[in-house]
Amino acid sequence: MLVLVIVFKYLVWPTLRPKQRHEEAPNEETKKVAKMAGVEHQTRETIDGVCVGILREGRMLVVRTKRYSEYWQPVGGRREVGEDLTEAAVREVFEETGWRIEKKALEKVLVEPMDAHGGTLTFYTAQAPFGEPVIDETEIAEWRWVERGNLVDLPAFAAAQKFFALSTRAG
Q1: Less Cβ around it within 10 Å: N or C end of the chain?
Q2: 74-116: per-residue pLDDT in tens?
């Protein structure tokens, strides 16, 4: 009987309750994910991120952030409370490049799990506006245009590698 109570309490009950916004102290896994996303204190159960592969003439704009300077990735960041994913993508592109893109210009390519609480990392592509980006040097250590066929050769997080592989085949 005790085993049934324990199974129900820890395995079944949490799946029946709707996820709620909380202000609890985060566990170690949540702290790790929050730190990766640049969040001091998590105020919701999931952290969702967005990345935008900005394309021009067979190339994609990739960046190395100051926080994770050993990895290349598309422009992106975390979704803020109250934003939908496309709003977050548009905002991140503007903050990191100075370019204004429209939500309707985003094409969803991939959604990958991001954390133990159901957070996701959604990858989009969009065509680059005219001109060169005005890079936010407080966040970005380096940027470059990379031929789509060479994206898979870049050191990147696993989800970004998957996105680069998909983008290489599409290009």
Answers
A1: N
A2: 999 999 988 999 999 999 999 999 999 999 999 999 999 876 6
At 41-77, the pLDDT tens digits run: 444 556 899 999 999 999 999 999 998 889 999 999 9
Question: Torsions phi, psi of 131, nearest 5?
Answer: 85, 180
Amino acid, res. 149? G
46: left (phi over 0), alpha (psi -120 to 50) or beta: beta
pTM, full prediction: 0.72
Rounded to an integer, what distance in angstroms lies between the CA atom of residue 12 and that of residue 8?
A: 5
Please report the domains of the chain, with CATH numbers, ordered by start residue: 46-170 (3.90.79.10)
